[in-house]
Amino acid sequence: MEIRDDSKRTFDEAIGLSTYSTSKAGVLSYVSIFENLWLQTELYQQIKESSTRLQLANEQLAIANEQLKVHDKMQQEFINVAAHELRTPIQPILSLTELLRSKIMDSNQRELLDVIIRNAKRLQRLSDNILDVTRIESGKLKLSKERFDLNEKIHNIIRDVKTQISVANDVQITLSPSDKSEMSIFVEADKVRIFQVISNLLRNAIKFTDKEGTISISLKKREGTEGENKKEGEVIVSIRDSGAGIPSEIRHRLFSKFASKSDSGTGLGLFISKSIVEAHGGKIWVENNANGRGTTFYFTLLLANS
Prior knowledge:
By secondary structure, the chain is an alpha+beta fold. It is built from seven helices and seven strands. It has helices spanning 11-15, 24-103, 107-137, 150-164, 191-207, 248-251, 269-279; strands spanning 145-149, 172-176, 186-190, 214-222, 234-241, 284-288, 295-302.
């Protein structure tokens, strides 16, 4: 028995209600009850302490996430500003160099100026790619869609790429269908962005194709399905080259940023192309050719309504 209130004058008042028992089983049952109550109290205290620690950890995680967001925002702003600042002097360098080239007749000097122009254009594409990546990752990639003939557009792209890349003169590029008027394929898309996708894929094919190699571009319509699982029609664009193929170690991450085995590329072009195609509701993929020479890139676009 334990005195619970020593201010009382009588013993029974001081100890309060008590139970006296000579039964061992009865006493042990009381002991068990009180031990369970004590364990529950300890368990409650541990839960309370764990809850406090978890709350503190969540608060620290929230602070870390906020700091990470601030860091990412600062990083994107820095890249954006750097790309814009890089872009600003490129255009006058290109314009003035091309003007100077047009006035020089010496072939050796013109070749030197060609080197400047070619590298200035590479620098221009790099700054454009960096800006595109920041737009994609911040969800600010905007599309200005219009209805146009994709077949005619690809003919124009082939002509432009051939004039811009000197090695293209040594590589045969064919388009199926070969006649612009043979098959009109109308899509509703951002004409500038689709030009960017096809140019990226075509430049890659030219870069990894031998001078005696070939590149073939084909367009194939796939009509939509009717009924309950209705699906819109689409066009499949394929660009096939006879180059070295894609190494197996980078194939699974080919459309990620900086996935490149080339010393002359950044690995941003395919990442940007994938983002543009998917923003149009299409998909893009690549396969090594069955004959073991070269690769074929495919992408799809939805056909425009008639």
